[in-house]
C-alpha cells in the first residue's frame, strides 16, 4: 500500500519545487488534460467556480490508493494547471474540486469526491457502486437527501484517468475519403458483431482487436460495406440500476469520457493499451478501404440528474458543464431523457466537445461522426437553431468540417424533431424515410406521394437548404427498435427481459406480424415475412441517399421482439454467425442488392432529379407511372388507397461527372412496387417494337438477377406485396448504325399514350 503524501499541505509555505521524490512546477493552461512528454506531464483542467483544485496521483501498481495530493496553485483564464517533471505513462490520476456547497443554487463542490478529468485519453477500471460515489447520503430516505453533503471518500471506488503516450505509427495509411453519395453504412456494435464468431480467438471476441480481425473485415468487404458506424465507443458507465438488476448497459449511450475509448472493449489492457488497440483497428479498416464512423453522445453524461452520482463534470463545475433550470438551479434541463443536458452554450463546454471531435479525427483518424440526439446540441436558450453556436463552430473548423457529419435530428424536448432542418455539411438520419417506407409496405392508407419523395432522395426536406440527396441517411431499422426480421414478426414490443414491465421502448413501430405474433411453423407466414424483408432491403438500396444497414438485418437477425435491447448484453443482441438456409439466402440477396447499387450510379446520384426534360437533351431523368403504364395523375398521387407505383430512372439523362470531369451515364431502369395484399396488373411502359425490359429483381422469389425478359406494352402481374426492378434492353430495331436509340424511353412512353388516346 502507498501512503498518501499531502503535498498540498506543504504548498502553503512552498508553492513549487521538490517535495520528497516528486517535483511540482507551475505548468501551462493549454492543452487541457494530462499531456505527457519525455520530460514530464502537464495537467490542466477548467473550472470557473471552484475555489481550489487538487491533483491526485495513483500508482499503476496500487490504483485504488491515493499516493500524492497536489494543490494546483495556478489559474489562468479559469484553467487550473501544474506540471510534474519526470512522471511516466501508466500513472493514474483524478481531481478534487473545492468550492461552495449549495445544491439549491446548483453549486455542489465536494472535495471528498474524486473526479475524472473530462480530457483524459484513457480510463482504467470500472466503478464500484459504493454509496461514496454520490455527493450526498444516497441511502437516506428523505427525498431532499441530495441537499446534504456526504463526506466519504469516493477514490477507492471510482475509475481513474491514465497518463499515456499518444504517439503512434500510422505507417502511411490514410483515410479512404469516399464521397458521401457512394457510401454504404453498416451500423454495428464492437462486442455484438464479434462475440460469437467461431474464427475469432476467444480472448479477442468483443474487442477492438476482434473487430479488426481479418474475418470481420473480409465479411464487410464481401458484403459491399464502405463504412462501419460503431455504436458508442467513448468510455461509458455500467449504470448502478442495471448492475443491481443483473443487466448491463450494452448500447453505451451513457458517456463518462469524450476522449477515452471504452476500456472493456480492449483485449490488450486498460493502462493506455486500449488507445493503441483502437488505432490498430482503424488502420486495418482503412487498409481495407472501409471508413470508421463513430456514434458519439455529447448531449448528456452518465452523471444523471440531482440524484445522480458525482463522477466528473458535475463536481468540477456543475454550473458551466450542464444546463440548469434558470428559475430553479438545483434541477437540470433534460432534453435527452437521461436526467441532464450538456451545456453547449458555455464556451468551455463547447471547447470540450470540439477538442474531443478534433482529437478523434486527428489522433484516432476516424472518418466521421453520427451525433446522438443532435437537436439537444443545437439548442439555443430554448429552441433548436440552425445558427446555434455548436453548428456554427463546426462549420468554421478546418478539420471537423471535412469529415462525415450525421445528425440524429431529434431530442425529447419541445420542438426537438428537426428532420430536414440541419444546415449544409450535415447529413441526417431520415426518420421520415423509415416511417413512410414501413407504413407503405405494411399496407397503410398513406398513398404514394410521400414515398416518391423518399425514393428520390427527399428533396422536399433537403433541396431548398442547398443540400444533396446524400443529406438523407436512409434506414428502415436501427439499433433502437425492432430488427428487420422482428418488424414483420411482431405487432407489439416484447421487452419483458429489460425488467421494466414492458413499459420501455417505443409503442409506435409501424410493424406487422404477418398473421401470428412471434415465431411460427406456418410456411405461408414465414414465406411472407421473408418477402417483406426483401421488400424493405430492396427499397433501401434502390433509393437515392445514403443507405444504412443495421447489423444482422442482412441475414434476418432477431431480438425475439425486444425493441429496446439497450441492456441485453447477451445472445438477444449479439450477431449469430450460425445461419439457417433461409438466412443464407437473405444474405446473398442483400449482397447482390448492394453490388447492383454500387455498379449503377443512377441509384446513388450526387444531385436531385430534375423531373423534366433537360435543357440540353430531349430526355427526362425520372418519370412516375401507375399500374396502367401511364404517367401518374393528380388523383393517383392524392388517393390514400394507391398502393402501387412505378418509377423510371433514366441513366442517359444524368448530369453527373466523375472526379476527372467525365460525364457519367447509366442504363434505364424501371422500379415497380405493390404493397397491396392482392396482385396488380402492371403494364410495362414503352413501345413494343423498340423496348424490352430485363427483370433484375423480383422480391416474390428473392433471386438476383431474375433473368427473364418482357417486351413493352405487356401486362404483367405484380405479385402481392412485392417489388420488381427492370432494366431497359434495346432491340436492334431501335438502334441506328452508330448504336444510338431512334426513340428514347420517355418518347416511347408518350407515343404509347398517344396511341391509347387515339
Automatic annotation (TrEMBL):
Keywords: Glycosidase, Hydrolase. Belongs to the glycosyl hydrolase 13 family. SUPFAM superfamilies: (Trans)glycosidases, E set domains, Glycosyl hydrolase domain. The keyword Membrane does not apply. It comes from Neolewinella aurantiaca. This is Glycogen debranching protein GlgX. Residues 495-507 have a biased composition (Basic and acidic residues). Residues 195-597 form the Glycosyl hydrolase family 13 catalytic domain. One of its GO terms (biological process) is glycogen catabolic process. Residues 495-518 are annotated as: Disordered. InterPro entries: GH, GH13_cat_dom, GlgX_Isoamylase_N_E_set, Glyco_hydro_13_N, Glyco_hydro_b, Glycogen_debranch_GlgX, Ig-like_fold, Ig_E-set. GO terms for molecular function: amylo-alpha-1,6-glucosidase activity. Pfam families: Alpha-amylase (PF00128), CBM_48 (PF02922). Coiled coil: none annotated.
Amino acid at each position: 500500500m502507498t501512503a498518501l503524501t499531502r503535498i498540498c499541505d506543504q504548498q502553503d509555505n512552498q508553492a513549487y519545487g521538490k517535495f520528497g521524490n516528486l517535483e511540482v512546477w507551475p505548468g501551462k493552461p493549454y492543452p487541457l488534460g494530462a499531456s505527457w512528454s519525455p520530460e514530464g506531464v502537464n495537467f490542466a483542467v477548467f473550472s470557473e467556480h471552484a475555489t481550489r483544485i487538487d491533483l491526485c496521483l495513483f500508482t499503476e501498481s496500487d490504483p485504488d490508493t491515493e499516493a500524492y495530493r497536489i494543490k494546483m496553485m495556478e489559474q489562468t483564464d479559469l484553467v487550473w494547471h501544474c506540471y510534474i517533471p519526470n512522471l511516466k505513462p501508466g500513472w493514474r490520476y483524478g481531481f478534487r474540486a473545492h468550492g461552495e456547497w449549495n445544491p439549491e443554487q446548483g453549486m455542489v463542490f465536494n472535495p471528498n469526491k474524486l473526479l475524472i478529468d473530462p480530457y483524459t485519453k484513457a480510463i482504467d477500471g470500472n466503478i464500484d457502486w459504493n454509496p461514496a460515489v454520490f455527493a450526498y447520503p444516497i441511502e437516506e430516505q428523505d427525498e431532499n437527501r441530495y441537499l446534504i453533503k456526504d463526506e466519504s471518500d469516493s477514490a477507492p471506488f471510482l475509475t481513474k484517468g491514465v497518463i499515456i503516450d499518444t504517439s503512434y505509427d500510422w505507417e502511411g495509411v490514410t483515410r479512404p475519403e469516399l464521397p458521401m453519395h457512394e457510401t454504404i453504412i453498416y451500423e454495428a456494435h464492437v462486442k455484438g458483431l464479434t462475440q460469437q464468431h467461431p474464427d475469432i480467438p476467444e480472448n479477442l471476441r468483443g474487442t477492438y482487436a476482434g473487430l479488426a480481425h481479418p474475418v470481420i473485415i473480409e465479411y464487410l468487404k464481401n458484403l459491399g460495406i464502405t463504412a462501419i458506424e460503431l455504436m458508442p465507443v467513448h468510455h461509458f458507465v455500467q449504470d448502478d440500476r442495471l448492475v443491481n438488476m443483473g443487466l448491463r448497459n450494452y448500447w453505451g449511450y451513457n458517456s463518462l469520457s469524450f476522449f477515452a475509448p471504452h476500456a472493456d472493449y480492449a483485449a490488450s489492457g486498460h493502462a493506455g493499451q486500449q488507445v493503441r488497440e483502437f488505432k490498430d483497428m482503424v488502420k486495418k479498416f482503412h487498409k481495407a478501404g472501409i471508413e470508421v464512423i463513430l456514434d458519439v453522445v455529447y448531449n448528456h453524461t452518465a452523471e444523471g440528474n440531482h440524484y445522480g452520482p458525482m463522477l466528473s463534470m458535475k463536481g468540477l463545475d456543475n454550473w458551466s458543464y450542464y444546463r440548469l433550470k434558470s428559475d430553479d438551479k438545483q434541477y437540470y434541463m433534460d432534453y435527452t431523457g437521461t436526467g441532464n443536458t450538456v451545456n453547449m452554450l458555455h464556451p468551455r463546454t463547447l471547447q470540450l466537445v470540439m477538442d474531443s471531435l478534433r482529437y478523434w479525427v486527428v489522433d484516432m483518424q476516424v472518418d466521421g461522426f453520427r451525433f446522438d440526439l443532435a437537436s439537444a446540441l443545437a439548442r439555443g436558450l430554448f429552441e433548436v437553431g440552425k445558427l446555434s453556436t455548436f453548428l456554427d463552430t463546426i462549420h468554421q473548423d478546418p478539420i471537423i468540417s471535412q469529415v462525415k457529419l450525421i445528425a440524429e435530428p431529434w431530442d425529447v424536448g419541445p420542438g426537438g424533431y428537426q428532420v430536414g432542418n440541419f444546415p449544409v455539411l450535415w447529413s441526417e438520419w431520415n426518420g421520415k424515410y423509415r416511417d413512410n417506407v414501413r407504413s407503405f409496405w405494411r399496407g397503410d392508407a398513406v398513398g404514394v406521394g410521400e414515398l416518391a419523395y423518399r425514393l428520390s432522395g427527399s428533396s422536399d426536406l433537403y433541396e431548398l437548404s442547398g443540400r444533396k440527396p446524400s443529406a438523407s441517411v436512409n434506414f428502415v431499422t436501427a439499433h433502437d427498435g425492432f430488427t428487420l426480421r422482428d418488424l414483420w414478426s411482431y405487432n407489439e414490443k416484447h421487452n419483458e427481459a429489460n425488467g421494466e414491465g414492458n413499459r420501455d421502448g417505443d409503442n409506435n413501430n409501424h410493424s406487422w406480424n404477418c398473421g401470428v405474433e412471434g415465431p411460427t411453423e406456418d410456411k405461408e407466414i414465414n414465406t411472407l415475412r421473408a418477402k417483406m424483408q426483401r421488400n424493405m432491403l430492396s427499397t433501401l438500396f434502390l433509393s437515392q441517399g445514403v443507405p444504412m444497414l443495421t447489423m444482422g438485418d442482412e441475414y434476418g437477425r432477431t431480438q425475439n421482439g425486444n425493441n429496446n435491447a439497450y441492456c441485453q448484453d447477451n445472445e438477444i443482441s449479439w450477431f449469430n454467425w450460425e445461419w439457417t438456409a433461409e438466412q443464407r439466402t437473405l444474405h446473398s440477396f442483400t449482397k447482390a442488392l448492394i453490388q447492383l447499387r454500387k455498379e449503377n450510379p443512377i441509384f446513388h446520384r450526387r444531385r436531385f432529379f430534375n423531373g423534366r426534360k433537360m435543357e440540353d437533351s430531349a430526355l427526362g431523368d425520372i418519370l412516375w407511372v401507375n399500374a396502367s403504364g401511364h404517367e401518374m395523375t393528380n388523383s393517383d398521387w392524392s388517393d390514400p388507397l394507391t398502393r402501387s407505383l412505378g418509377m423510371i430512372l433514366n441513366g442517359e439523362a444524368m448530369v453527373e461527372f466523375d472526379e476527372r470531369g467525365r460525364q457519367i451515364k447509366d442504363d434505364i431502369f424501371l422500379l415497380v412496387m405493390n404493397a397491396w395484399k392482392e396482385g396488380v396488373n402492371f403494364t410495362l411502359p414503352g413501345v413494343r417494337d423498340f423496348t424490352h425490359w430485363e427483370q433484375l429483381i423480383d422480391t416474390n422469389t428473392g433471386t438476383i438477377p431474375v433473368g427473364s425478359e418482357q417486351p413493352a406494352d405487356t401486362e404483367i402481374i405484380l405479385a402481392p406485396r412485392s417489388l420488381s426492378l427492370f432494366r431497359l434492353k434495346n432491340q436492334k430495331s431501335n438502334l441506328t448504325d452508330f448504336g444510338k436509340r431512334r426513340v428514347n424511353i420517355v418518347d416511347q412512353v408518350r407515343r404509347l399514350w398517344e396511341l391509347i388516346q387515339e
